[in-house]
Design goal:
With about 350 residues, this protein is of the alpha/beta class. It folds into 3 domains: about 40 residues, no CATH class; about 240 residues, P-loop containing nucleotide triphosphate hydrolases (Rossmann fold, 3-Layer(aba) Sandwich); about 45 residues. Helices cover about 55% and strands about 10% of the residues. It is built from 17 helices and 8 strands. An 8-stranded mixed β-sheet has the order 1-8-2-7-6-3-5-4, with helices on both faces. β4, α10 and β5 form a beta-alpha-beta unit. α1 packs across α2 and α8 packs across α9. The longest helix is centred in the first third of the chain and has 23 residues.
Length: about 350
């Protein structure tokens, strides 16, 4: 009876009498469906416990930070670390994550896992982590993920990079360039590097079409002055080894470069391996900031708690630092106070004169 029904069904479907092969194929297909349905009926439904365990696959923020000795300020729930590549996909573009996985990296490094969710929330970042901890990709991949999509909507003109990385030395600039250039190619962007002690012509040529630029302050300042580069479309500004750059006498060039990056909503990052806990120079370049400290550098977070919760202007930071120094009575503190007063007077005078 079953065969008659099947033949009648096939006749209606085909508009003719089915052949023996067509009937055999239809029978085999029907038997396969029956077997599959029977197997599904034998499988018990997932228990509530199993569902709960599935949700627990997410990284436990408190345990993860304790295991990696990381402090974050402010401790916002949206800053939960991306401990796995699957979680990292919420902040980093799929092709970039796939490239990382293809290299055999088991998971993001601690500074990457913690910096990516913070940057994806549009917060400036000050991070302190040891050399070799993956700081370049920590600030680089979220930027590459975003401006690759943004450029498709509003294309940039020539000589208008969207990402700028400042490094204090030629060696550091070249290292960052090598890392970023590989990942820029994945999203169809170009990376360029500019530093002193090399022919200007080749570097100027590379600036014409680059989306990401790695540079030392002195050479970049020269290119700004002669019109070789326009930083008005920079949406991601990063200071690599920021404390070394500010200590090496580049503060005036850095101020001029930061001023040339005129977009008001740009993201600013400061990454370093040697930042002093009580350092305050350089905070004039950042506003709504989150602090990330790894291992022995976690004191940085507690030392700058007020800045993270109440963003201040550069003049307010200057006044606050001077007030704190005045409360100390040591000769060293008085000398620091005098230095801050001189700096405050110079900055305010420059603003009043428009220079």
């Amino acid at each position: 009876m079953g065969s008659k029904k099947l033949i009648a069904k096939l006749t209606t479907k085909l508009g003719r009498a089915p052949t023996a092969d067509e009937v055999a194929k239809a029978k085999a297909k029907k038997e396969k469906k029956k077997a599959k349905r029977a197997a599904a009926d034998d499988t018990p439904p997932p228990s509530k416990k199993a569902k709960t365990n599935g949700k627990a696959g997410k990284t436990d923020t408190a345990a993860w930070r304790k295991a990696h000795d990381i402090k974050v300020e402010p401790d916002d729930a949206s800053f939960a670390p991306h401990g796995t590549w699957q979680e990292a996909r919420s902040s980093v573009a799929e092709p970039l994550v796939a490239q990382c996985e293809g290299k055999g990296w088991a998971s993001p490094t601690p500074v990457q896992a913690q910096a990516w969710p913070v940057l994806s929330q549009g917060r400036d970042v000050v991070a302190v982590a040891e050399t070799g901890s993956g700081k370049t990709l920590a600030f680089g991949l979220p930027a590459l993920s975003k401006f690759a999509a943004d450029d498709a909507k509003t294309p940039r003109k020539n000589r208008q990079p969207a990402m700028l990385v400042l490094a204090p030395t030629r060696e550091l600039a070249c290292q960052s360039y090598e890392v970023l250039d590989e990942f820029c190619k994945i999203v169809g962007a170009r990376c360029a590097v500019a530093y002193g002690g090399a022919p200007r012509h080749e570097q100027q040529k590379a600036l014409k079409s680059c989306a990401a630029l790695v540079a030392t302050p002195g050479r970049l300042k020269d290119f700004i002055d002669d019109g070789s580069v326009d930083l008005s479309r920079v949406r991601f500004l990063c200071f690599d080894e920021a404390d070394r750059m500010l200590d090496m006498g580049f503060i005036d060039a850095v101020r001029a470069i930061a001023c040339a990056c005129s977009l008001p909503n740009k993201l600013v990052c400061m990454f370093s391996a040697t930042w002093c806990v009580h350092r305050v120079r350089g905070y004039e370049f950042i506003s709504s900031v989150a602090f990330i400290g790894l291992h022995s550098f976690t004191g940085l977070v507690a030392g700058r708690r007020t800045c993270a919760k109440s963003p201040m202007t550069s003049s307010a930071r200057t006044t606050s630092a001077a007030s704190s120094a005045r409360s100390a009575s040591s000769p060293r503190a008085r000398k620091r106070t005098a230095a801050w007063r001189r700096r405050s007077w110079c900055v305010n005078s420059a603003r009043e004169t428009g220079n």
